[in-house]
Amino acid sequence: MRLLLLTAITMTAFAANSVLNRAAVGGLGMDAMSFGVIRLVSGALALAALIAWQKRGFAIGGVGRGVAVAGLLAYIFGFSLAYRGLDAGLGALILFGVVQITMFGGAVVAREDMPMTRWLGAGLALAGLVWLLAPGSGGAVSVAHAAAMAAAGLGWGIYSLQGRRESDATQATAMNFILAAPVAVLLSWALAGEIVIGGAAALSGQGVALAVVSGVITSGLGYALWYAILPGLGASRAAVAQLTVPVIAMAGGMAFLAEPLTLRFVGAAVLVIGGVLVSMRKA
Predict the structure, then answer these.
(1) For the chain, percent helix, then strand, then coil, each to nearest 5?
(2) Helix (H) and strand (E) counts for the chain?
(3) CA geometry: angle at 32 spanning 179 and 197, to 5°?
(4) Does the CA dihedral 168-234-160-79 come out positive or negative?
(5) Is the pLDDT of residue 230 over 90?
(6) Closest of 120, 94, 72, 76 to residue 237, by C-alpha
(7) Three-state SS for 51?
(8) What pLDDT does residue 159 have?
(9) In Å, what is the CA distance from 29 to each residue of 12, 196, 205, 266?
């Protein structure tokens, strides 16, 4: 029950990132990449202060740290670039579909115990997500933007798989952010022709504030909690649990962004949550 509660809190933090992103990018006109870089830098500063205060140290780590940092950057930039030309629903399906494939693949390679209920739960939850998010038949899909979202899903799956090997979740998350932040600033400069943090016209005080909240609380602390619970969840259960994120994010949009409640959402949410609960059973 404790693990289930902590998982629910973590998924809520992930969904809050989506709501904050939509409020800043969709509502305030902020550039998605600006949001992502500010989110990463603010999270790095807050986590650095936290581990300095707790005297946990700033050990860089070995190859695993590089893998996690690369995965985090692939997620942040793939996500930001993809949503410049991809429908939100289709983007979420690609993202979470690739995360499922990556993390279930990691579970198979690690010979993790995966009972039939795990596969059944994953199938039910994924079917619910397809029902909820599947776009209409109109309009061509940008292959480049779809590939960027697939790279984001692969990056997040790798980042999550690496978390199972970390003994200190807070210190590991802090170092991932601290090492990724300067690379993110340089990449944003290379991709946008300017350092994104340095004065884009679309930046507003409200948008920056939302990005900082996302970076410090729902990303920095949320990702640290994710790393803390991953060893108990295992790769396959962790993968399925994340299918609740779009559902929680849409519920948040209804609560805070005045988005409409539909019967389709209710039915799909029941299917997703039911599938996740089935998959969380140990046998």
Answers:
(1) 80, 0, 20
(2) 12, 0
(3) 55
(4) negative
(5) yes
(6) 120
(7) helix
(8) 96
(9) 24, 14, 12, 30
Tokens of 93: 């399906």
Cα 257 from chain centroid (whole Å): 20
Total residues found in the chain within this entry: 283
Q: Measured in Å, how far apart are the chain's first and last C-alpha atoms?
A: 15
Torsion angle, alpha carbons of 172, 181, 83, 85, to 10: -140
Quick check: helix, strand or coil at residue 37? Answer: helix
pLDDT tens-digit readout, 112-140: 888 899 999 999 999 999 998 876 655 56
Cα–Cα distance, 108 to 241 (Å, whole number):
17
Which amino acid is located at 86 in the chain? L
If you search the block for the tokens 């970390």, which residue do you land on?
A: 166
